[in-house]
Design a protein that fits this description.
The protein is mainly alpha-helical. Among the domains are: 34 residues; 61 residues, Orthogonal Bundle (Muramoyl-pentapeptide Carboxypeptidase, domain 1). 45% of the residues lie in helices and 0% in strands. It has 4 helices and no strands. The longest helix is centred in the N-terminal third of the chain and has 34 residues. The radius of gyration is 34 Å and the shape is elongated. 8% of the residues are buried.
Length: 159
């Protein structure tokens, strides 16, 4: 007896099932990859560690941050990258403000051109004497009060 085998022909239902299975596999693989990346990031950043983090001095600022892992006792130390801090460039407007506040005896610090806590405090004192809200920031009303005090004097100048 001879049997004849005919090639299997996939019906549309079988093709749809295969496409759904491939899509499901891709979605699951992507989810597993993202979960693995999240776990790796957590380990690198020290999340989930029961050991206390070691104190490591910060390296000198450079254009790229580095992760330093000290070798030694076999324990794992996790160090978070440090972003370098760029100093604020001095401003001619703030230099002028500091000089003018100094003329009125509100500011006694160095004229640096950078907004310091001394500059903010001097602005607050000016606002207090001008009966303005004491915010420590320059606005139109504070600028007008400063110009008025420079032109007409204030109680701090002994006039």
């Amino acid at each position: 007896m001879s049997t004849t085998q005919t090639p299997a022909v996939q019906t549309p239902a079988v093709q749809t099932s295969a496409a759904t299975s491939r899509t499901r596999t891709v979605v699951l693989a992507t989810a597993a990859l993202l979960a693995g990346a999240g776990i790796t990031a957590g380990v690198v950043l020290g999340l989930g560690s029961t050991a206390p983090a070691a104190s490591v001095p910060a390296a000198a600022p450079s254009s790229s941050a580095q992760v330093v892992v000290p070798s030694g006792s076999g324990t794992h130390h996790h160090v978070t990258p440090v972003t370098p801090v760029h100093p604020v460039a001095p401003s001619a407007a703030i230099e002028t403000l500091q000089r003018e506040l100094g003329q009125l005896n509100y500011y006694e610090g160095p004229v640096t051109g950078t907004m310091t806590s001394q500059t903010t405090q001097a602005i607050t004192y000016l606002q207090r004497d001008a009966h303005l809200p004491q915010t420590g920031t320059m606005n139109a009303a504070t600028q007008a009060a400063l110009a008025n005090f420079l032109a007409n004097g204030n109680n701090q100048m002994g006039n």
